[in-house]
Design brief:
Layout lengths: L4 H12 L4 E2 L2 E2 L2 E3 L12 H9 E3 L17 H21 L22 E2 L4 E5 L3 H11 L6 E9 L5 H18 L6 E4 L8 E6 L5 H10 E4 L5 H9 L7 E4 L2 E6 L5 E8 L6 H20 L21 H4 L35 E7 L2 H13 L4 H21 L4 H13 L2 E10 L6 H7 L9 E9 H7 E3 L5 E3 L3 H20 L3 H14 L14 E7 L22 E10 L8 E7 L2 E9 L5 H19 L36 H10 L18 H6 L37 H6 L3 H9 L13 H4 L10 H16 L2 H21 L4 H10 L2 H12 L3 E6 L15 H4 L9 E4 L39 E3 L5 E3 L15 E2 L6 E3 L28 H6 L3 H13 L4 H10 L8 H21 L8 E4 L1 H12 L3 H13 L9 E7 L7 E7 L4 E6 L11 H4 L1 H8 L15 E4 L10 H14 L9 H36 L1
Parallel strand pairs: 10-12, 15-19, 19-21, 23-24, 29-30, 32-33
Antiparallel strand pairs: 1-2, 3-4, 5-6, 6-9, 7-13, 7-20, 8-9, 8-11, 12-13, 14-22, 15-16, 17-18, 21-22, 23-25, 25-26, 27-28, 30-31, 31-32
Helix pairs in contact: 5-6, 5-8, 11-15, 11-17, 14-15, 18-29, 24-37, 29-31, 30-37, 31-36, 31-37, 32-33, 33-35
């Protein structure tokens, strides 16, 4: 019969899969592929039949598999044909059943590209293409390209070598069974083309061969070296590619810590690339975990010999040769004005020529880099490659000074006039294109082999010259402004990476064939490129590696018996003229391993290269503030402390948003301080815990203390502006009216501690009639809306948790704000709606096969109408997917094809309308299609992690966050107008407030993060006979500082605030950062604390009220004067000689210069010696020390003599009154919330 053209194509496609449909019958036995049977003997013949042929039941069936009457003539025909085939096969293979002796020499026949055997023991295949070229380079280059991977493991129990060796050996042997490519041996193939090699794997029915292999490949080292020192030692280990050496060696050494062991692996590049080896190493560590737990199956019981089914062919057979039409056009030849450099000259070196430097960023620094990447919509790889390019050119320019005058002039001229700088080698990973059957067979261990392609990128020199300039005198200057880098070099690099990185599988085959043709002609090792080589592994954990063993995941995997503190990747760069930048992320930290050869690199050139990279990274992590008059549309680089958040905190104008930052900072505070990852977990006294800040979250704990309209205004005898702290009395008097001067003189013996009362507009929240703070009030309105949008099944999920909240509120006679917020965070109330909304953005699709007649227009493109019409109609959008990609990348199951339409079915009957339901498919934003049931966000409404597409690593799902205090603002409640196409946020509202009102809002936001117990402790501390704690002091000082700002900015035209007050919490955090040498962090904190109030320019004076950094029992006040460099410290120690000098406080000047680089700060040589003033009243009790310090702090703020003795009892009463009123306000808010939730629960 004649088949329609499109239907014939479909039938042909089914024939390739082993299905031939004839007259409503299925032929009994057909094969997937044909292969020569030579070289197979004995029992392996039946193994061959079982692995290459498929037996189907001899029953007639229609297209859906429904059984037909057994008397159908075609059934007997199929049976006869099949039995005949079996008979012929037996006659063919039975003569081969005789066992043959094991051959000790390499067989003469050329090994195929898939493993084959002649003796049922030794399985061999030839190296081809890239892997063959890697072996050649390794041999001629004396180990070039040998890869290393090293982990710093910390065990929870101290294990001796004897205890550990048994478990390690067993886990290593199990890995051989799971990933047999780890046990390949590379040997020279004689009698063939030059530079030919083959892999050999030895099979055994017992574990004896694997045990011998483990004894040969595991090395226990006795040297005492650090983790980074081991890198150089491991790079010395190399072997010839044709020597028959084991594929991978594992070296284990004891660290300096009792529970520390280094696990180090080395393997040549022809065995695997770095990405391909990571999966096997991850499997080994999981094996080790199981061995330590005692739940692993003995490797003696494994079905040895079965692992040969997992022997992998060459990569050219594992990657489909498709996508020729999608191959990018050849890169245009770089402009004739290519940047020229002095050709490097090779020199002889005694001993190892390996040089390297590991750049490792902290968690905070890494987050700063990633936040900038996200802010400027740039990939991390693009940013790193841009840094490498700038460092390479900068190094060339600096080394040019050592060249001859003619060469120097030539290089400088080339830099000024050239158009392009080319990076010849960028690596594009191709593992995602491997046929799923190989990945599935190896179970996540990786397939081995070199499965990547290299491509060049060409970088515009105009953008580079905006970041590097050469003066008339030859001085080289780095431009650290964000404009040249973020809007020039980085987008240019990213464009090149995106264009070159989109390599279809066919590109790999083109490169593989080119390497195969060149391989026989290679006689000497010589790499042409002398430029930088960029390679990135990406985030190790995001690709699912080492997750149970990362310290950051300790809470998620509490049963892990060890964790990996650090992981280092590297390669042997011996004889390499280029510098290699190898980048990866692990445990929240960014690593960059710079490597090269001292035969081509001098100590100076490599040092300059590394210094330039570090300087650019520092630029990204530092603060670059916009200058006055800068154009509004220019990108800014203000990323001080908001680097701790995953989300980008910006307003529509592009400036930083401070209100949400402060709120999130206080919400992320733990109950005890964690100085760093290396700090101890010692629990301190409760007051010390309250005064310390989590270093990792940069939590600036500024706590204001007043709710407008509830605290009685304080009446002051001074109705005057507040003046500079360091001005003397005559200067103050010159600016005051006579009656004001009289008031000051009359009150000197007993000065008042109350500032002038503020205008009502500064104290009262006029935008809302609710008794709650404005942010909380708007959150409550949003909450009502959320409940109205919940579906019945969602209400069933939320109401039980809400009932428990009401019962707890009744039992405890009220609840704290954090308890309400915690309920909303973890009850799933907000997340239910967010998840529902985000799921709706991942569309359901139907899979259709892709044929040559109707190729898709793009990745997983829509089906053409002609092709779509051949299948049963569905309202679900259909996408065409190529056969090699038509499977789920998570479960590795093939997609089910939809049924044909009735008119295209052959001999259709009444049952054709019945079709088994297929698994729903979802199309991700990147275009790839996966089973819905495999996506974790569809498995649970509580999924709250980042999910990336397993095929292309595109970010599909981000962590969810819902807080009582993160609601949007009703538009009619705003003080300013917002475009109607979006809802106004609290940050938009906050940015419209004057500075003193911003302090007020922070006060209201802060109080909602405090449990009422802390306010009780603060209030009790104000009683007579007790030390006023830092929370109570902060309440009083914050409100005082607010009034100071209001007076300065409203009492006189053009009033300027030039004083910054630093409280004890921020002071401790800044001093702690400085003591660790992290001056940038300290500068960020200071600058953010100034900018968050909307204050301009730079402060002239800073007043610090804090506990002594070295002795937390005592209080001090520091006064810094930035213009003249004066530092005065007021101490309150009981003994004159008891005050310990603090070097950390003197180092604050470095933080000032980083915070305000353009400010007129006294240079270090001209600074006067710090002054120490002891302030202590006669008969002053030790418990009054904090009050006395607060009095001095206020004297300085008001411009009064700092040493003037305050009325301690009067001041204590003032602090008590303010804290008590604050406590009552908090209680009224909590009661209102309880009534609100109770009423809401009753209505539902």
């Amino acid at each position: 019969m004649q088949w329609p053209g499109t239907l014939r194509s479909l039938m042909q496609r089914k024939e390739k899969k082993g299905h031939v449909h004839t007259n409503n019958c299925w032929v009994g036995m057909l094969f997937y592929r044909t292969e020569p049977l030579s070289g197979i003997s004995g029992p392996d013949a039946f193994d061959y039949i079982g692995s290459h042929y498929v037996l189907f039941s001899f029953i007639s069936s229609d297209e859906r598999g429904h059984e037909m009457p057994s008397y159908c003539p075609c059934v007997f025909i199929s049976a006869i044909l099949s039995l005949s085939f079996i008979f012929v096969a037996l006659l063919t293979f039975l003569p081969l059943m005789e066992p043959r002796p094991v051959q000790d020499t390499v067989r003469v026949a050329i090994p195929d590209l898939e493993f084959a055997t002649t003796d049922r023991i030794h399985y061999t295949r030839r190296l081809y293409g890239k892997e063959r070229m890697a072996a050649i380079n390794s041999g001629l280059g004396k180990g070039y390209g040998q890869l290393i991977s090293m982990g710093d493991l910390r065990f929870k129990q101290i294990l001796s070598r004897e205890e550990l060796s048994t478990h390690v050996r067993a886990a290593w042997i199990r890995l051989r069974f799971q990933a047999p490519w780890f046990a390949y041996r590379c040997k020279t193939l004689n009698g063939f083309e030059p530079n030919s090699f083959y892999f050999e794997y030895k099979k055994s029915s017992k574990a004896d061969v694997a045990e011998a292999w483990a004894d040969e490949s595991i090395f226990w080292r006795t040297e005492s070296l650090s983790h980074q020192e081991w890198e150089l030692e491991m790079k010395k280990i190399r072997w010839e590619p044709g020597s028959g050496h084991v594929a991978v060696e594992m070296h284990i050494a004891k660290g300096k810590e009792p529970n520390q062991w280094f696990f180090m692996y080395t393997f040549p590049h022809q065995t695997a690339d770095a990405r391909g080896a990571c999966g096997a190493l991850d499997t080994f560590l999981k094996n080790l975990q199981e061995e330590l737990e005692g739940r692993a199956e003995s490797y003696h019981n494994l079905p040895w010999g079965e692992e040969i089914s997992r022997l992998t062919p060459t990569a050219a057979l594992m990657v489909p040769d498709v996508g020729a039409s999608d191959l990018p056009a050849p890169s245009q030849k770089p402009a004739s004005t290519q940047f020229q450099r002095i050709p490097l000259q090779e020199c002889q070196v005694a001993g190892s020529d390996e040089i390297y430097q590991l750049v490792c960023l902290s968690v905070e620094e890494t987050k700063a880099v990633l936040t900038n990447c996200k802010r400027y919509k740039a990939s991390l790889t693009a940013v790193i490659n841009s840094i490498l390019v700038l460092a390479e050119i900068e190094t060339v320019l600096q080394l040019a000074a050592d060249a001859s005058p003619d060469e120097y002039a030539k290089i400088i001229e080339s830099f000024k006039t050239s158009d392009v700088f080319t990076v010849a080698v960028n690596i594009a990973d191709m593992h995602s294109y491997v046929y799923p059957k190989y990945a599935k067979a190896l179970g996540g261990c990786g397939t081995g082999g070199c499965i990547n392609v290299a491509f060049p990128t060409h970088h515009n020199m105009d953008h580079i010259r905006r970041c590097i300039s050469v003066g008339i005198d030859g001085q080289i200057t780095r431009n650290f402004s964000g404009s040249g880098f973020w809007d020039g070099v980085v987008p240019d690099t990213q464009k090149g990476l995106v264009s070159g990185g989109r390599q279809p599988p066919h590109a790999f085959h083109v490169l593989d064939q080119l390497n195969e043709k060149m391989a026989p002609q290679i006689k000497n090792f010589h790499l042409l490129t002398q430029s930088v080589v960029a390679s990135s592994l990406g985030s190790v954990e995001r690709v699912g590696l080492f997750q149970p063993f990362a310290p950051a995941n300790a809470e998620k995997y509490p049963n892990s018996l060890f964790y990996i503190e650090d992981w280092i990747f590297g390669m042997c760069a011996t004889n390499l003229p280029a510098r290699v930048g190898h980048t990866w992320e692990y445990n929240g930290r960014l690593y960059m391993n710079l490597q090269g050869s001292s035969k081509w690199q001098t100590e100076k050139s490599f040092r300059l290269f590394a210094e330039s990279i570090r300087a650019r990274l520092d630029q990204i992590m530092s603060i670059t503030f916009e200058l006055e008059g800068e154009e509004e549309d220019q990108p800014h680089t203000r990323v001080p402390w908001r680097i701790i958040f995953e989300g980008e905190i910006r307003t529509r104008e592009g400036k930083s948003s401070s209100a949400n930052l402060w709120l999130q900072l206080t919400q992320n505070l733990p109950s005890y301080p964690t100085h760093s990852l290396e700090s101890c977990n010692t629990m301190l006294h409760s007051e010390q815990r309250l005064s310390m800040i989590n270093k990792r979250s940069y939590s600036l704990y500024i706590r204001d203390t007043y709710y407008a309209g509830l605290l009685k205004p304080l009446v002051s005898t001074l109705n005057t502006p507040i003046h500079d702290m360091d001005q003397n009395t005559p200067t103050i008097a010159a600016e005051l009216r006579p009656e004001q001067i009289d008031q000051i003189l009359d009150n000197l013996p007993r000065p008042s501690y109350h500032l002038a009362s503020l205008d009502a507009s500064a104290d009262v929240d006029l935008s809302s009639s609710s008794p709650l703070p404005q942010r909380v009030h708007w959150a409550m309105e949003r909450l009502k809306k959320l409940f109205s949008e919940l579906e019945p099944e969602q209400l069933v999920f939320v109401l039980p948790k809400m009932r428990k909240l009401m019962e707890r509120a009744k039992q405890n006679k009220g609840l704290d704000f954090p308890e309400f917020d915690q309920f909303l965070r973890y009850s799933g109330l907000g997340r239910l709606l967010i998840v529902k909304e985000k799921k709706g953005k991942i569309p359901v699709v139907r899979y259709l096969p892709c044929i040559s007649d109707f190729p898709p227009s793009e990745l997983n493109g829509p089906a053409p109408p002609e092709w779509l019409a051949m299948f049963v109609h569905s309202d679900v959008p259909s996408v065409c997917i190529e056969d090699y990609n038509a499977c789920c990348n998570i479960c590795l199951e093939d997609f089910e094809e939809p049924p044909l339409a009735l008119e295209f079915q052959v001999d259709a009957n009444d049952d054709d309308g019945i079709q088994a339901s297929t698994k729903p498919l979802r199309q991700l934003i990147c275009g790839h299609v996966l089973h819905e049931e495999c996506l974790p966000m569809f498995q649970s409404d509580d999924y709250d992690e980042t999910f990336e597409c397993p095929a292309c690593r595109a970010e599909v799902w981000t962590s969810l966050s819902f807080s009582l205090l993160s609601a949007e603002i009703p538009r009619n409640a705003a003080h300013n107008s917002i475009s109607s196409d979006r809802q106004e946020t609290y940050d938009d509202y906050y940015d419209t407030l004057p500075p003193w009102e911003k302090i007020h809002r922070k006060l209201l936001d802060w109080v909602t993060s405090l449990p009422i117990s802390e306010l009780d402790v603060a209030l009790n501390s104000t009683a007579h006979g007790r030390m006023v704690n830092d929370i109570a002091l902060h309440i009083w000082t914050s409100w005082t500082y607010k009034r100071y700002i209001y007076s300065r900015m409203t009492d006189s035209p053009g009033g300027v605030v030039d004083c910054l007050c630093v409280d004890s919490r921020m002071a401790w955090m800044i001093s702690n950062s400085i003591s660790r040498g992290e001056h940038r962090d300290a500068g960020r904190m200071l600058r953010e604390s100034w900018d968050t109030f909307g204050l301009e320019d730079a402060p002239r004076l800073l007043v610090v009220l804090a506990k002594h950094f070295s002795d937390q029992r005592h209080w001090v006040v520091h006064k810094f004067s930035l213009p003249d460099g004066a530092l005065t410290t007021y101490d309150f120690f009981p003994e004159p000689d008891a005050f310990p000098a603090s070097r950390t406080t003197k180092l604050w000047w470095s933080a000032f210069r980083l915070a305000w680089p353009d400010a007129a700060i006294c240079p270090i040589p001209g600074m006067p010696k710090p002054k120490l003033v002891r302030v202590r009243q006669p008969m002053q009790l030790a418990v009054d020390e904090s009050v006395a310090a607060a009095g001095v702090w206020r004297n300085i703020l008001m411009g009064l003599p700092a040493e003037q003795n305050p009325d301690l009892e009067h001041l204590r009463d003032a602090i008590c009154t303010e804290v008590d009123s604050f406590r009552q306000t908090y209680t009224s808010w909590a009661n209102h919330l309880s009534m609100f939730f109770g009423d809401l629960y009753g209505k539902i």
